[in-house]
Amino acid sequence: MIESEDVRITRAGYDEYAELYARMVEGLMDDMLFDRMMLDAFAEAVRENGTGPVLEVGCGQGRVAAYLTAAGLRVSGIDLSPEMIRLARATYPEISFEIGSMEQLPLEDAALTGLVSWYSLIHTPPQRVPAVLTEFARVLRPGGHVIFGFQAADEPTGVTEYAHKVAPSFRWAPDTFAEVLAANGFRATAKLSREARPDERTPQATVLAVRV
């Protein structure tokens, strides 16, 4: 698979900012009520569907994988940034973390009961998102669950490009994202939008979906 320039830029950016990012997010989950609510709902949905493996795609330094592991899920993580994976392994040695690409997951078809994409699609150009979602659908069992977190667009529909420290990024309106999910193997089951916190520049969104 030929790697695109935006992937190389994103990897280099997260390698450069890995230590800073890890310090920024340390303990952050404690203050994120709505994030915890949606992650808890995802964990409950996965548990109801079985006890199979869950993969966090774009796991960063592992905080979400660790949260879901504490909730009783069998979670592993992949990330394109070697530095992020190094930090994740050092911080959470009980969880398996590997370097990998969301566009070509190293898994058999229908291998997972759950998949987490927590702010990991934000640097993917919108025209490539359907292919990534198709790859997610491939590795999820029918009835498996997926959760997405991302910066939300200000408008009720559409996608907006915005400046990010690491690489060019894209903000999705939740309804628009749900439509793309529906065209690529998923059905959105819950959407949450919240206003920006004082330390955030944009509204935020979470979408839960099931593999149809």
TrEMBL record:
The keyword Methyltransferase applies. One of its GO terms (biological process) is methylation. InterPro entries: Methyltransf_25 (IPR041698), Methyltransf_Superfamily (IPR050508), SAM-dependent_MTases_sf (IPR029063). Residues 54-144 form the Methyltransferase domain. Keywords: Methyltransferase, Transferase. GO terms for molecular function: methyltransferase activity. Transmembrane segments: none annotated. Gene3D superfamilies: Vaccinia Virus protein VP39 (3.40.50.150). It comes from the Bacteria. It holds the Pfam family Methyltransf_25. This is Methyltransferase domain-containing protein.
